[in-house]
């Protein structure tokens, strides 16, 4: 970590940018190839734009310690606005412009925002007429659109603000580490969002410690796809840009091409992104001739044996934490047996996969959910490290992470510096010994100040000793790696009293090439059930290869028609039963109650667009349950 820029002496986040501009002056900081016009900012230009944005806000009369709402999406201008607001001595309340109108209005009101920075005129119009009754003194458009006189609230565009700032003198804001930096409203899956209060100290802890995971070099390319306002992407961006990286903005439509074109060294993402890359590779494999498919499968099977034995030998296997020295020696010998096949597979197959996704990756940084074991193993086989971390919005967010030196697959890694993890009994709150599963409590410098204007909600999750209740279940290894097993509120309790954590079983089921997405159900029932979104392309190929001559509906077919279609024919139903049984039984720690006894097929994928997924692509279980309640009830009749 010696090559990292040291920010230990600063008191607030905006102080980063003058230091970065001095160190990395002409290196490109931000590059948005998909904006019109294309946007490229060097470190010097970025710092200047942030300063002009801040002095422009001050010229408009903003008072220090005020809150400014920032409702916008990924772009270089987002970072300029975010840091400009803080440099002016204010905090911001952030949200996507794509959020529901009612949610945006709730945030504007709840946050006591006195000014609004908004994506464009279209987003602004969503907020009328209610915005006129809020104490908003002025509005800034992040676009170059001409402002209109439709509202009595003073409105200027991005360039006009920068021009104003360039002719004004920036007044120092004298921020301290304890000052509020941002309010991030939890999207969650139920109830009204709560404003998580993160201080400059919270965010600076991330900048000062994420270097334990990765040590980037100035000019390293980084690909950004997650929402910039989200705590996970935001803290990683702050850190990577503070170290002189060049950040390229991408989106779901372009990111596979951008991987190839911009050859990132690092990319921050969530499990669904790594799964989609994996599925793309599997699709290419299925399109090869039968002989090539056999060869690829031969390499993959033997490489899996190689990496699993190597994990045991290196004491990095979650299933063999207590392996004896002799067991590790045997595993080492087995890995040596499989090594020649693995390295031949690397030369013939895996190297081509790496080249197809840029050929320059040092690591994927993953958060926002668990990574299925087969996905972990696949990336290990093709030699692209995936460093999984853990945290919540309330923890700024990262508390734990794996590193290149200790990449214990299946875990969320060891705690960050100055961070403590405690596992307690969910009901008695008594501490549990290593290896026992319980509720995860966290204490450290990254814990939020509290929920804005909600002291009772704050005291429910942060106790008198500063321990934050994560709501997650997990256990800790002898080496202090955190292993998550699910959300306390996601636990399915069967009628026989058995508690089932759905996530690990779902992760196992999506190993099947015929299952694209799955959500377990079965609260208070005798057995588990599932809603399955199939991979229609793989099903069609299976049908053709098996000469079943089945036809499948498209994604827009009604539920009634789906149930009359070949998706509910005996061959297809038998196929899914076989796939579910195999994948669930092959899962480590399998129990009889884990079996999925009933299921229904749905064709509309879970997504942000239809409201069934969060911004970090986690399934909103209560929303899906409500949406498909009749279907769920029907499968248990």
From TrEMBL:
CDD domains: LC_FACS_like. It holds the Pfam family AMP-binding_C_3. GO terms for biological process: fatty acid elongation. Residues 20-452 form the AMP-dependent synthetase/ligase domain. GO terms for molecular function: long-chain fatty acid [acyl-carrier-protein] ligase activity. Keywords: Ligase. InterPro entries: AMP-binding_CS (IPR020845), AMP-dep_synth/lig_dom (IPR000873), ANL_N_sf (IPR042099), Chloroplast_AMP-bd_Enzymes (IPR052987). This is Long-chain fatty acid--CoA ligase. It comes from Aphanothece hegewaldii CCALA 016.
């Amino acid at each position: 970590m010696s090559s990292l820029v040291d920010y230990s002496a600063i008191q607030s986040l905006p102080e980063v940018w003058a230091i970065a501009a001095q160190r990395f002056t002409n290196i490109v900081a931000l590059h948005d190839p998909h904006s019109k016009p294309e946007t490229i900012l060097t470190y010097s230009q970025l710092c200047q734009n942030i300063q002009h944005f801040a002095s422009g806000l001050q010229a408009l009369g903003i008072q220090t310690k005020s809150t400014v709402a920032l409702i916008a999406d990924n772009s270089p201008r987002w970072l300029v606005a975010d840091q400009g607001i803080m440099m002016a001595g204010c905090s911001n309340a952030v949200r996507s412009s794509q959020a529901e109108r009612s949610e945006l209005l709730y945030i504007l009101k709840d946050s006591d925002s006195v000014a609004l920075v908004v994506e464009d005129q279209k987003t602004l119009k969503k907020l009328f007429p209610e915005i006129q009754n809020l104490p908003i003194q002025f509005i800034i458009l992040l676009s170059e659109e001409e402002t209109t006189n439709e509202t009595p609230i003073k409105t200027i565009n991005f360039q006009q603000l920068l021009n104003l700032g360039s002719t004004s003198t920036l007044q120092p804001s004298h921020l301290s580490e304890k000052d509020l930096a941002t309010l991030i409203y939890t999207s969650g899956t139920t109830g009204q969002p709560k404003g998580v209060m993160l201080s400059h100290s919270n965010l600076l802890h991330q900048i000062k410690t994420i270097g334990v995971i990765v040590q980037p070099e100035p000019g390293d390319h980084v690909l950004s796809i997650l929402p910039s306002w989200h705590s996970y992407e935001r803290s990683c961006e702050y850190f990577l840009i503070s170290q002189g990286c060049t950040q390229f903005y991408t989106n779901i439509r372009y990111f596979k091409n951008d991987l190839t074109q911009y050859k990132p060294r690092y990319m921050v993402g969530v499990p669904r992104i790594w799964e989609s890359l994996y599925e793309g590779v599997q699709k290419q494999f299925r399109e090869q001739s039968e002989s090539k498919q056999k060869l690829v499968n031969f390499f993959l099977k033997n490489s899996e044996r190689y990496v699993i034995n190597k994990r045991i030998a290196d004491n990095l296997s979650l299933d063999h934490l207590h392996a004896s020295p002799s067991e590790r020696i045997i595993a080492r010998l087995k890995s040596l047996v499989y090594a020649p096949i693995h390295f031949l597979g690397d030369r013939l197959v895996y190297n081509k996969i790496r080249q197809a996704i840029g050929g320059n990756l040092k690591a994927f940084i993953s958060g926002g959910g668990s990574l299925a074991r087969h996905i972990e193993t696949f990336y290990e086989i093709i030699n692209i490290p995936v460093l999984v971390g853990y945290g919540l919005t309330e923890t700024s967010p990262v508390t734990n992470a794996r590193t290149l030196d200790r990449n214990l697959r299946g875990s969320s890694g060891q705690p960050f510096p100055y961070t403590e993890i405690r596992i307690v009994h969910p009901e008695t709150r008594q501490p549990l010994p290593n290896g026992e599963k319980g509720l995860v409590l966290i204490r450290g410098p990254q814990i939020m100040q509290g929920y804005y204007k909600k002291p009772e909600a704050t005291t429910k999750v942060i106790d008198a000793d500063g321990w934050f209740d994560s709501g997650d279940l997990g256990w800790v290894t002898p080496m202090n790696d955190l292993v998550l097993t699910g959300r306390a509120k996601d636990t399915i309790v069967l009628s026989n009293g058995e508690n089932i954590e759905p996530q690990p079983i779902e992760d196992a089921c999506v190993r099947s090439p015929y299952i694209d997405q799955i959500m377990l159900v079965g609260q208070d029932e005798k057995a588990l059930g599932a809603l399955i979104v199939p991979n229609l392309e793989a099903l069609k190929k299976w049908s053709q290869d098996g000469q079943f001559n089945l036809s499948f509906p498209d994604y827009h077919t009604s539920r009634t028609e789906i149930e009359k279609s070949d998706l509910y024919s005996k061959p297809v139903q038998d196929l899914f039963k076989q796939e579910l049984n195999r994948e669930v039984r092959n899962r480590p720690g399998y129990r009889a109650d884990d079996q999925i006894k009933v299921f229904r097929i749905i064709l509309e994928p879970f997504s942000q667009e239809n409201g069934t997924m969060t911004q970090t692509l986690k399934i909103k279980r209560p929303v899906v349950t409500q949406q498909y309640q009749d279907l769920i009830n029907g499968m248990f009749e």
